[in-house]
Specification:
Cobalt-precorrin-4 Transmethylase, domain 1; Methyltransferase, Cobalt-precorrin-4 Transmethylase, Domain 2; Rossmann fold; 5-stranded parallel β-sheet; 19 helices; about 35% helix; globular; binds S-adenosyl-L-homocysteine
Amino acid sequence: MSQAKKGFVYLVGAGPGRADLITLRGAERIRIADCILCDKLANPALLEHARLDAQIIHVPKRIGAGSFTQDQINQLLVSKALEGKIVVRLKGGDPCIFGRVTEEAIALNEAGVGFEIVPGVTAAIAASEYTGIMLTDRRYSSQVAFITGREADGKEDTNIDWDVLARFPGTLVFYMGIGSLSLIAERLTAHGRAADTPVALVADATLPSQRVVRAPLCGIVEASQKAKIEPPALIIVGAAAGGDEELNWFMRQPLFGKTIVTTRDAAGNAEFARKILDRGARPVEFATIAIQPLTDGNEFLRTLTHLADYHWVIFTSPNGVKVFFDAMAALGKDARVFASNKLATLGAKTAAALAQYGIKADFVPTVFTGRELGWQLVAFANLNGKKVLSLRSELATDDLVDVLQKGGAIVEDVPLYTVVPKTGDAEALRRQIEDGQIDWLTFASPSAARNFFDAIGPEAVNAGRARVASIGPVTSEQLKKLGVRVDLTAAEYTTDGLLDAIEAAERPT
Ligand code: SAH
């Protein structure tokens, strides 16, 4: 029998909540893994780093069907590694802080499987920094203790010395303690901790759903019940918990905690969602359209054969650029097809998309519509009798072509793609709108607006509290035609401009 190849296990800290707080090494390990065993607390968005063919096993340790015991997880790690696989065991926060890594590491040692531990940002550190409750602020505390709240009831073997904790002259941070908050508060008080000691609960740290509840030790149980705090949450006890509200940079962001619906195609939604998360808001991705390439049609293929005849080639959207170069890749061609052309783009975003393929556009005016681009190009270059190729969406208006023709150009307008309707779960979203769970609906194109309101009638939106934000006048016009109340139109017609406008509307005056 041939010697079986041995795999390797990475015990990786996923970080505390938001997906980009993982370490670079952690993300790299996810990228190379054959198999990933994922904890309940690890952000599922991290799995987007995984290879498409990676096996992903969710191993929640709760009670009930589909849950795993620690022994089962240990065995799974060992058996996957013995199959010769690179295994990532993805754990919330830091893998070793209340993470039962020791048991997994011992099982791997016993089976002769190699392992590496990749540290992560533990919840206490993240909760502190995302609330401004500084655990070791020198004014309040020069020491900090991490404690598991699991053992508070004393039923399990406990190493907790309540006498010591009650007297501890620093900050206490209890993990897994929300279920036994009243016991913890009682024990600390019974052992002599002052009833007015500041306490803060931090739930869902680093996520748009993050919450903080502050109260003195004697009132924290009631405050927690009133706010319906649920795990995952931390209990922070000590003078530092009283800390400075002014340092709470995260929750102070104007869009913090707001729910914003994106209504573009899947790729556009994903990109927009990242920007929304970056401003502390919660994105809800609802696809309304899909980009359908037309690059296998005769018109496009014929155009390619005489690309060199055109003086100028115009791209008007990043989508167009992507569709074009996907088609080139399929044909075994690359950016050199444009060796003899000058290139103009509508907007910096489109130019940036071209740059990804190694092309520096020759003309990138700061404009947002085809008409403006046309006028600018006519003013910039002498187009008289020159051949111009416009590569756009099939649904684009004729403005650009008209203006270029007026400038004397011989224009060919070749569609690269079309936009087809495609909707997500409209019923579920309508319910969220009606229940008042949505703060903003955003629209970045007239076709998205049309398809959205085909799926979800305007009544639900007009009657609800969700506000409607449009990327620019053309989209706003379309929304109004559909009978939708438009609450704001961005001044700069980009997704960043859209978020700036929403932020301005939300900023307290
Ligand atoms: N290894 C993890 C902790 C696992 S124990 C770490 O290093 O963070 C699980 C406990 O961690 C939860 O009960 C909760 O107390 C805390 N926790 C994890 N993620 C949290 C978050 N985003 N916000 C608040 N507490 C969190």
